[in-house]
Structure formats: C-alpha cells, structure tokens
Structure to design on (347 residues):
C-alpha cells in the first residue's frame, strides 16, 4: 500500500470502491451526422433524453478533425513531460488563473493531477471578486510556454474547432427544450470559456485519492476529450451510483453544467462526476468549459415556466458565481464551495 500526502486523502465515504460495476447501463452515444430534417429530429430527441436521464452523453461524427486531436494530445503530453522548472514559468497565481497548476483542490481535498488552462478569448474580463457590491472587473490572460514550439497555435486551433461543436450542441439542446435553435446563443457573446489539459500521473494509493473529486461543472456544457485509459465516473441521476464512462476512440463526452440545469428549470441534469486514478498508467483528458459571458444573470427560462412549473431557482449572476468557484480551487477554504442549490427556491 502506497504512502501519499494526507492532503490528497478523501473522506472514507468518497473513496473509490473499485468493485466491478455491472455495466447494465451506459451513457448514450449519439451520432451527430445528419442528412435529413428527420435525422435532426431524432438527434434532438436523443440529446433531450440523455440530458434528462444522465446529464451526460458521448458524440461521434462531431466535426472536430481527428488529426488535430492527436496533435493536441501529443503537445499536451510533451508539455507535462518537461521539468517542473519549465512548467513553473507559466504557473498561475491568485490574480491570473490561467496557465500551469499542480495543486488544484475540489471540495477542499487536493486532486491527484496537474493542469494547464487557456482561454478561448484573450484577454477575458471577469468580476474582480465574488462580493456582489464590487463592480470592478479584471482581465484574465493566457500564459504560453515556449516549448513545445507549436503549442500555442495548436491550442488556439483546438478551441476554435471545439467551440464550433459547443455552439452546435447548444443549438441542438435549445431545440430539445422546444425553443428556437439560437435561443441561448446571445448568452455567449463575451463568453468566458476556457480549455484545460489534465494530466493524472500514476498514483501509489488509488484507493485513497481521486484525480478529481466529485463535483458538478459550473457552466452551460463541457466538451471533454479523454484518452483510452478510463477513470471518469458519473453519479447516476436515479440513485447516485458511480457509473464509469467508457473511452471510445474519437468520441467527445458532453455534459450539462449548472447553468443549463437552471435554464431548463431542473428538466436537465448537471451530474456529479469524478475521476479515479490507478497505480499503473498516467491519463490525459481535455475538457472545454463552455461558459456564458460574465454579466449574464442565470435563471430558469421564461418560456419553460408557468403556473404548473414554477421557477425552481432565484436569479444569480454567472460572473460572481465563477469568481467564487475560482477562488476555492486554489487552496483549502473554511467555507463550502458555492453550488446552484444555494439559489433554489424553497418548495
Ligand atoms: O478528466 C476527466 O475525465 C474529467 C475532468 C473533469 O471533470 C473536470 O476537469 O472538470
Ligand atoms: Fe468536471
């Protein structure tokens, strides 16, 4: 049994069990290639069902070139393979959260991973603090390493392509809610989206630590690329059971974030998920967090609420929510991380 720093150790109830979970159910795999309006209708309906039941699905024939994905995976690995001294040159700090980081905390427990974050729009403005009365904004900017030499260009090309997919999915999700395809697009005019390279090194005590502790993604949706190692697990909406997400070559994993859950007034589900690590193989993944503009106030969409279906959430400001979440990632805090449940209207 390996020894690890106590700051990585999860409370007993949150440690992974490593029992074989009966694969009686898996998240749906949806083919996005459509040639007729009736194909689109079918895709929309499958997406709607997946968002309700799981909050997760995988997509194939998504339009992001495989070659680009292979290149980006290669440079991400090359970046992390460098000595710590090199990686620290682009280390993030409390002012600028973009760049390299190796002490991410989820729910106040340290994650067994290192990350590199980069923005889609550079610079991106966010609230300077999570204090609702503080109107000041600050700029986040990208920090690019010199090596690998094609790193920056590939990262920018990757976010351009994945952003296109994110907008396509946003439109399909709007349609699935019975709304016009472009109903949600305006919320992303000054999007604060970013992408992340996750590197999970082999862990000597995979039964005690997690690559990422259980959490829900904050934004509208996440487009995730994972390698063939596996380790992502999602909490099933019906009973909370942890279900592994099977790696499928060239597929993207899509999950609903908190904003979409609120917009849909709980029809769609932002599922809790986590990453288990193993003692043998390192794992890489690349989430793209599709985040609305900081000034957008999030609340259940007017078209979806009525006397039979009252709004389940009070309005909250996305930028302030993000600023609050962001602070808690750095280090242990005494208070609980902000959650959408804090905005729930009592029944
Ligand atoms: O590595 C993964 O598969 C998922 C990572 C994740 O959930 C996150 O970075 O928010
Ligand atoms: Fe996540």
């Amino acid at each position: 049994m390996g020894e690890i720093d106590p700051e990585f150790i999860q409370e007993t109830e949150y440690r992974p069990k490593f029992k074989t979970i009966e694969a009686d159910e898996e998240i749906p795999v949806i083919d996005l290639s459509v040639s007729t309006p009736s194909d689109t209708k079918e895709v929309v309906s499958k997406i709607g069902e997946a968002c309700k039941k799981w909050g997760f699905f995988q997509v194939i024939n998504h339009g992001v070139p495989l070659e680009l994905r292979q290149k980006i995976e290669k440079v991400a690995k090359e970046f992390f393979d460098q000595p710590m001294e090199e990686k620290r040159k682009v280390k993030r700090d409390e002012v600028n959260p973009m760049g390299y980081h190796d002490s991410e905390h989820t729910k106040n427990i340290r994650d067994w991973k290192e990350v590199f974050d980069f923005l889609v729009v550079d610079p991106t403005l966010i609230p300077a603090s999570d204090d609702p009365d503080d109107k000041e904004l600050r700029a986040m900017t990208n920090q690019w390493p010199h090596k690998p030499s094609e790193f920056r260009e590939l990262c920018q090309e990757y976010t351009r392509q994945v952003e296109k997919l994110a907008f396509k999915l946003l439109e399909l999700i709007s349609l699935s809610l019975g709304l016009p395809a472009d109903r949600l697009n305006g919320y992303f005019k000054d999007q604060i989206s970013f992408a992340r390279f996750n590197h999970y090194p082999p862990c000597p005590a995979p039964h005690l630590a997690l690559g990422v502790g259980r959490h829900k993604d904050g934004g509208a949706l996440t487009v995730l690329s994972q390698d063939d190692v596996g380790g992502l697990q999602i909490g099933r909406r019906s009973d909370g059971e942890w279900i592994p997400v099977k790696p499928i070559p060239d597929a993207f994993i899509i999950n609903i974030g908190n904003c979409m859950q609120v917009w849909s007034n709980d029809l769609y589900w932002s599922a809790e998920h986590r990453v288990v690590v193993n003692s043998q193989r390192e794992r890489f993944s690349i989430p793209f967090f599709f985040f609305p503009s900081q000034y957008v106030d999030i609340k259940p969409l007017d078209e979806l609420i009525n006397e039979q279906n009252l709004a389940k959430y009070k309005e909250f400001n996305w930028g302030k929510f993000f600023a609050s979440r962001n602070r808690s990632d750095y280090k242990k805090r005494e208070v609980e991380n902000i959650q959408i449940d804090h905005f729930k209207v009592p029944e």
Notes: The chain has one domain: 6-343. The helical segments are 37-53, 66-81, 84-87, 151-176, 258-263, 318-328. The first strand starts at residue 29 and ends at 31. The chain has a mean pLDDT of 92.
